[in-house]
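Researcher: Let's try something more involved. This one mixes different molecule types, so please make sure each is placed in the same coordinate frame as the others.
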Amino acid sequence: MFQIDNMSRIPVYEQLIKQVENYIMTGILKADDRMPSVRTLSTSLLINPNTIQKAYTSLDARGVIYTVPGKGSFVSADAKRIIGESSRKNIDTFVNLLQELRLAGVSKEEIMDIVERSYKK
Amino acid sequence: MFQIDNMSRIPVYEQLIKQVENYIMTGILKADDRMPSVRTLSTSLLINPNTIQKAYTSLDARGVIYTVPGKGSFVSADAKRIIGESSRKNIDTFVNLLQELRLAGVSKEEIMDIVERSYKK
Amino acid sequence: MFQIDNMSRIPVYEQLIKQVENYIMTGILKADDRMPSVRTLSTSLLINPNTIQKAYTSLDARGVIYTVPGKGSFVSADAKRIIGESSRKNIDTFVNLLQELRLAGVSKEEIMDIVERSYKK
Amino acid sequence: MFQIDNMSRIPVYEQLIKQVENYIMTGILKADDRMPSVRTLSTSLLINPNTIQKAYTSLDARGVIYTVPGKGSFVSADAKRIIGESSRKNIDTFVNLLQELRLAGVSKEEIMDIVERSYKK
DNA sequence: GTGGTCTAGACCACT
DNA sequence: GTGGTCTAGACCACG
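Model: All components are placed in one shared frame. Result:
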């Protein structure tokens, strides 16, 4: 279910968080669905349990999942809304990147084309 | 001329590189213009000389500036082209970010509007 | 594995880079092989970690190795090609040196002999 | 008579030394010919007198030129022999460079061709 | 344990 | 005064 690239410069726990969020946003993981246990993921992904734990702790702190001691972790009812909101904060990054591409000589038409294609997929 | 945010997660030397590149792309720094000396910047920005050096070394290695020991560093003739080319590599990042915003519920119209405004500035 | 001459005019970090490249070109270091850690080399060569770091950063920037923070540095798949290409740039230096030797009275036969012997080793 | 590249990474005084040596080896400067005065060169090349002086001092120390206080500097009788001998020391550098090019995949034939052409000029 | 960043301060070669 | 190199030692994020 999850794909981790150990050679990537992006920290493993961030890759995991991102994928959980994507599965939630695309509806593959729904409210109150049970998350795989830390141990399960640890052995199936060959990743240190501490790393999985770190990802889960972060998701829990943001309210994306909730953890019931002794039972496991579950997708929270507000997950989609929370993820959506935090993703919106990326608009600043988006604007900065846009300015940079513009300075690099990327035309508005080229950008528009990329946007069109992204939304058609 | 340069503004450094010591609290940012972006390393100081990268902030400096980015700003030098921006000044070159916007034409404020032109080919063969002399860069501020390592020590000058060090004292004016209250940053350790080694950190400035690191930024300059990186810019030199990429051919954005050329350095003559004992003389100083100067904007290279190819600077704009080189910066432009490396910035174009950000298109991948741009596409990923776009997908994320889309998943977060940002509409195409909203994106288009941001693009329009960015290119009008 | 590495030999550093602290008395040489060639900077320590450049000696290191050169030796890493030689090990890669001769096949002793292969793609995805793990490089010794910065600290390991630092203690075994009695060199400051920053100096090793500088060499590794440079090799990484050129794509000869790739570095995963917290994991280590590894020989990249393209290493041989990249090193080969940059070494070819030395042909200019070679030609200049040749002219100098010629002016110094070194005969063509002598040069040819040296070349023969170099390629026989 | 002399051409200095201020933007070169090669120190100005070394450029000067090299050119003096070349003029001697090619016979343009002969034994007992008078060298341009430090002041003359300084003004014509727009170089700091100290830099010229450094070059002359070095040439004098090696016996390539001799200086008569109040009269000027002159090409010594042994100049050609001295320069020739010191240039021969470059054979080591030559061999190292050759090894490097070989590792980079430059064929023996290619090298031989370069040598042939160098000696035909 | 790994690499990444930064400071402080030193010494060198060159102008 | 300029850049280049190096050491010593610190703190951080990641695993």
